[in-house]
Amino acid sequence: MNSSTEQPADPSILLVDDDPGILKAVSWVLADEGYQVASTSDSHQALETLERNGFRLVITDLAMPDTDGFTLLRKAKDLNPGTRVIVMTANQEPKSRAEAFVLRADGYLLKPFDIMDLKNQVSRCLQSLEKA
Questions:
Q1: Which of 34, 40, 41, 47, by CA, is between 20 and 30 Å from 75?
Q2: Which residues of 88-118 are buried (b: 16+ CB within 10 A; e: fewer)?
Q3: Nearest of 50, 62, 116 to residue 86 by alpha carbon
Q4: For the chain, what percentages of helix, strand and coil (3-state, to nearest 5) are there?
């Protein structure tokens, strides 16, 4: 963990993406920042995990087989309105971004995204929980 940055004691982050490369890279970046990350490429498993465990932050791809990221976003907010959700997508359609924010997404990353943007959005989301 970067000692110059204060992090919440034990943030729980659920990372969902059907691309194993994205899962590995984002998990590594977040773990390097000191976060505890659960990750899955299976959207059905992600839904089950959301129901069983409380997560402070969910980072999900929008385009996945079976269950899309919008469904995960809705489910996370239905289970706990305080859960923060960042969506990732390669879809550059403005409609996609607008729909994510209508569904109360707390962040939006357009793939390929800048690692600093990811870190900043995660930090902002988790800090907003500390203030709530």
A1: 34
A2: bbeeeeeebbeebeebebbbbbeeebeeeeb
A3: 62
A4: 45, 20, 35
Contact call for residues 50 and 13 (beta carbons, < 8 A): no
Report the CATH number at residue 45.
3.40.50.2300
* Number of domains comprising the chain: 1
Q: Is residue 2 part of a domain?
A: no
CA dihedral defined by 24, 128, 97, 39, rounded to 10 degrees? 20
In a domain, 127, yes or no: yes
- Any bridge partners for residue 80, and if so which? none
Q: Does the pLDDT of residue 111 top 90, yes or no?
A: yes
pLDDT of residue 22: 95
Alpha-helical segments (H) within 67-114: 69-79, 94-102
Tens digit of pLDDT for each residue in 46-89? 999 988 888 999 999 999 888 889 999 999 999 999 999 999 99
Is 96:89 a contact under the CB 8 Å cutoff? Answer: yes
Which range marks the domain in which residue 97 is found?
12-131
